[in-house]
Amino acid sequence: MNSVSESYKNNPLHLKHIIPLDFKTALKLPDSHAWTLPDHPMADPLTHAAVPVIDLGGPQAATLIRQACEKWGAFQVTNHGIPIKLLNQVEFQTRRLFALPANQKLLAGRSPEDFTGYGLPRISTFFSKLMWTEGFTILGSPLDHARQLWPHEYDHINFCQVMVEYQKELKGLAEKILGLMFRSLGLTQEDIAWFKPKYGCKSPQGVLQLNSYPVCPDPNRAMGLAPHTDSSLLTSLYQGNTSGLQVYRDNVGWVPVHPVSGALVVIVGDLMQITCNGRFKSALHRALVNNTRHRISTAYFYGPPQDVKISPSVKLTDHDHPILYRPVTWREYLDAKATHFNKAIELIRYDASSC
Ligand SMILES: C=C1C[C@]23C[C@@]1(O)CC[C@H]2[C@@]12CCC[C@@](C)(C(=O)O1)[C@H]2[C@@H]3C(=O)O
Ligand SMILES: O=C(O)CCC(=O)C(=O)O
Ligand SMILES: [Fe+2]
């Protein structure tokens, strides 16, 4: 039991935290989905604080990425090489999936101890109110679940082809951006040898999450996706042209990440924070909903090879920067996250007395 997909077997979910509402029939916000006021303030728009937009082909890309990761834990990338045609196909297929009748989507419902298929976000269990969202999680080929969604002979084929192609592109992009992040910190190929899978080992893992936020009758009292950090090394997110994503910055507040045409949002995950010994911080983020547009996003979580223990790079530690985190695999970290949610990173931290 050492893969990401095994990690939830020890923490099965209750069905009420898996099965989404039938949003099409909800004309007003049910009490089960009515959240009280947010805990943190919105950023003052007059500060003009904004997550940076970086041209991946530009000469300054590595430096700008380092600055963005230190300051925001997130940035948007243009010129990333993923064809806009593919992004449009992904959005089309994602909308096609979520437009299916509720009972048909449930044919591909996630089982309580698994993590692929259709359902609510894994973190639902940590909140007393439910989120205004539904998701579909893919690890590699979505074939089995897609056949359940579209039982007629050929209806699932385009969906599968597009999602497999998209994951291939996103994996290449994640590796490129990760390379730039490490280089920007002065780390060489040898320092990050763990990142290249050894011969015979399984390659690095990526998980694709399709998110749907249906039109909401009372968006100011609903929550699309509650504040969280991602467990990954990095997450690449496509949000089409509908706003909703926000990133939290200390002393500033929640900052909207407005869509830039064709751009992807890159979010630093917890495993990256560990690898960089806290130099880059994973970004706390959330998604809000609206009452006019059905918002779709796709998030690709990129993590280390399954048998690799991530630990802070020694080059980033010294007398003034003592090693902060214990070694951990992605699977072990997801286990910690499944039980301790946003406090998981603190559990991996050496306490001051043991340094
Ligand atoms: C690999 C994964 C990261 C993720 C859990 C998952 O198994 C697939 C879904 C991911 C997601 C998306 C919404 C927020 C989040 C915290 C959650 O509950 O499910 C993330 C998980 C994560 O990054 O820990
Ligand atoms: O929909 C969004 O903008 C955010 C999605 C997200 O944070 C996630 O899937 O982890
Ligand atoms: Fe996220």
Small-molecule components bound: the ligand C=C1C[C@]23C[C@@]1(O)CC[C@H]2[C@@]12CCC[C@@](C)(C(=O)O1)[C@H]2[C@@H]3C(=O)O, 2-oxoglutaric acid, fe (ii) ion
Low-confidence stretches: none
Biggest pleated sheet:
8 strands, mixed
CATH architecture level-2 label: Sandwich
Going across the biggest sheet, name each strand in turn.
1-2-10-7-12-5-4-3
**Terminal Cα span:** 31 Å
Question: What structural category characterises the helix and strand content?
Answer: alpha+beta
Number of domains: 1
What is the chain-wise order of helices and strands? Answer: EHEHHEEHHEEEEEEHEEHH
Give the CATH level 1 class. Answer: Mainly Beta
Indicate the percent of residues in helices: 10-25%
CATH level-4 homologous superfamily? B-lactam Antibiotic, Isopenicillin N Synthase, Chain
Quote the average pLDDT. Answer: 91
Overall shape: it is: globular
Q: Specify Rg, calculated over alpha carbons.
A: 20 Å
What is the count of β-strands? Answer: 12
**How many helical elements?**
8
What percentage of the residues does DSSP assign to strands (E)? 15-25%
The CATH topology assignment is: Jelly Rolls
